[in-house]
Amino acid sequence: MPPVFPMLTVLSMFYYMCLRRRARTATRGEMNSRRAIESNTRALPINVEIVQYAKEVLDFSSHYGSENSMSYTMWNLAGIPNVYPSSGDFTQTAVFRTYGTWWDRCPSARLPFKRTPSTFCSQDYVELAFEEPVYPTAVHILETYHPGAVVRILACSANPYSQNPPAEVRWEILWSEAPTKVNGPQARQFTPCIKQINFPTNLIRLEVNSSLLDYYTELDAVVLHGVKERPVLSLKTSMIDMNDLDEDEDEEKFGCGMDTLNKQFSIVTLREWPTNGYFDKLPYELIQLILSHLTVPDLCRLAQTCKLLYQHCCDPLQYIHLSLQPYWARINDTSLEYLQSRCTLIQWLNLSWTGNRGAISVSGFSRFLKVCGSELVRLELSCGHFLNETCLEVITEMCPNLQELNLSSCDKIPPQAFNHIAKVGSLKRLILYRTKVEQTALLSILNFCSELQHLSLGSCVMIEDYDLIASMMGAKCKKLRSLDLWRCKNITESGIAELASGCQLLEELDLGWCPTLQSSTGCFTNLARKLPNLQKLFLTANRSVCDTDIEELAANCTHLRQLDILGTRMVSPASLRKLLESCKDLSLLDVSFCSQIDNRVVLELNANFPNVFIKKSFTQ
C-alpha cells in the first residue's frame, strides 16, 4: 500500500520549516549578525559628546493644533523645553490628532490592511532636524502628559541642510518596541537604549502609537546626544557564533529584509530543486490560502525556494490588497517597477508615508498606476509629498473604479490640482485633512461626487466660506455618513442648518474648534433634532454648549457613542446624568476643562455608569 500523507502532516511540515527558520533567527537575538556585533560593543571615549535640541520640525503626519497657531502643534518640539518637568495639559506642547481606540470604533473607521507585519504598529510620526550631524549616543524624549506613545526612533543619513543631497537616503532604526501601557499621566524623560549606527545624522524621526493611552500624549522636546567622529568599537567576538555569520551572509544574499526588496522582486533565476516536495499534492487554492498569511518580504523569500512556490508567490491574486506603508523607508521607483506584474489585479493599495525625499518620482508613480490602476478601489497616499497635479490627474484617469482616496497631510499638492478629483464620480470616501484644497475645487468635487459617504476636511485652511460648502453638501451629498470639519474657522448656524436638513444619514460629525458656532443660535439643538442617527459628535472647545443642547441630544440621539464637549462652561452634572441614562451605547464622554464638572462629579458618574469612559483633563 503506498504511503499516505494526510493534509495536516503536509501543513505541519510547512509551518515547522517556517518556525525553524524563525527560531534560528531568534537565537541570534532577533537581529542579523551586524546588529549582534553592535549590541556587544562599547564605544571608547575618544570624542566629546555634543548635546542639542531639535532645531526644526521638518514633517509630521498630524497634530491637534491649528495650521495658523502654535498651540498643541508639532512645531513646539523645536527648541528647548517649554513645560518639562511639569505635568499636565499644556498648549505649548506637541500633540497628535488621536489617542486610544475611539477612532477605530466610529462610522468613519477604515478596515485594516491584511499582511501588515506585527512589528509595524506606528500610527503617526514627526521628523526633527538638528544643527550638527553626529553619531547618536542617546536620544531623550521629554513627555509631559500621558507618556508611552513612542514606539520607534529612526535616524536618516540625509542632511536636511546640505546643498548636495546624497545619492542614497538610508534610514536606520535606533530603537523599536511594541506599545506599552504607562501607569499614570505624569511627565517623564524617556531615554531608550539605542543602537549604534555607521553614519552621522542630524535627522531623527519619532513614530508613535497612542492606542493604549487614556488621553492625548504631549511631547515637549527631543534631545540628541552624539559625537562627531565615529566611535572606535571594541568587539567581544567570543559572544558571536561564526555559524550565525554564515547564515546571515546567506540571508543578505537572498534578501532577508526590505533593504533588498528590489533584488527579491527582480530575481528570476531559481535554485534547482529535484521536486517541489509535497506541495505538488496540495490543491492550488489551499497553497494560495496558506501564502495569504505571509508578509511581502516573506513572499519574496519563499519565491526563491522552488518553481511551484515561485508561481504562487508571483500570482496577482496574492496582491489584491497591498500595504507598502510598513516599508516606507525602502520603497522607491524600482520597487514599484518590480511590483507591476504582480499587481495587475490590485484593489487596495497603501502607499502612505512612502516616496519622500525623491524615493518615488512622478513618472515612476504614473507608470505604476497606468499598469495597475484599473481595478483600484482604495488608494491610501497619506503624507505622500511627491504627489503633484500630474499624479492626481493620472489617478483620476487610470483608476475609474476608485471609491476611497486618502490624501491626508499631502500639503505639497497645489490647490488647483484638486479639481481633477471631481472626475472620479464613484468616490465614497475622501480624506483631505491638512491639504491646500480651495473652495472652487471642493465645490466641484461635491457637485460631481454625489456618492460620498465619508468626507474629511479637517484643518483645510484655504476654504473661504464653509457655509457655502455645507449648503452644497446638503444639496448633493445625501448619502454622507461621516463629516470632519475640525478647526474650520467660519461655518455658522446657517451652514449647520443646511447640512442637517440635507444630510440626515449623518452618523459622525466633528465640529471641534469651530469658534463661529454659538449655542444661542439654536444650531446644536437643530443638529440633535435633525440627525437622530448620530453616533459620534465632537463639539470640542465650544464654550457655548449648554444644558439645553445636552438634553436635546439625550432626547433625540439615543444611539450616541462618543461625545466631546471639552471646554464648555455651561453644562451641569444634571444634564450629563440625563444624557448617560438615555444614551445606553455611550462609551466616550470628554468633559475636560468643563468648569461645572469637577473631579467629584466625574467619580460619581463613573461609579453610576461604569461602561462609559469619562475623561477629565487637568493642568498643573
Beta-strand portion reads 15-25%
- Estimate the global geometry from the Cα principal axes: globular
CATH superfamily of the largest domain: Galactose-binding domain-like
Low-confidence stretches: 1-12, 22-44, 234-258
According to CATH, what is the topology of the largest domain? Answer: Jelly Rolls
Number of domains: 3
Tell me roughly what share of residues is in helical segments: 25-40%
Task: Let me know the largest β-sheet.
Answer: 12 strands, parallel
> What is the strand tally?
23
Average residue pLDDT: 88
Q: Tell me what the CATH architecture of the largest domain is.
A: Sandwich
Determine the N-to-C terminus distance: 81 Å
Helix count? 17
Describe the structure.
One of its GO terms (biological process) is SCF-dependent proteasomal ubiquitin-dependent protein catabolic process. Residues 276-331 form the F-box domain. It comes from Chloropsis hardwickii. Pfam families: DUF7885, F-box-like. The chain has helices spanning 7-26, 33-39, 242-254, 261-266, 284-291, 296-302, 307-313, 333-339, 362-372, 389-398, 439-448, 466-476, 493-502, 523-530, 547-556, 573-582, 599-608, and strands at residues 41-43, 50-53, 56-60, 94-95, 124-145, 150-156, 171-176, 188-190, 201-208, 218-227, 233-235, 321-323, 348-350, 378-380, 404-406, 429-431, 454-456, 482-484, 508-510, 536-538, 562-564, 588-590, 613-615. With 620 residues, it is α/β, with parallel strands linked by helices. It has 3 domains: 49-227, Jelly Rolls (Sandwich), CATH 2.60.120; 319-463, Ribonuclease Inhibitor (Leucine-rich repeat, LRR (right-handed beta-alpha superhelix)); 477-619, Alpha-Beta Horseshoe (Leucine-rich repeat, LRR (right-handed beta-alpha superhelix)). It is globular, with a radius of gyration of 27 Å. A 12-stranded parallel β-sheet has the order 12-13-14-15-16-17-18-19-20-21-22-23, with helices on one face.
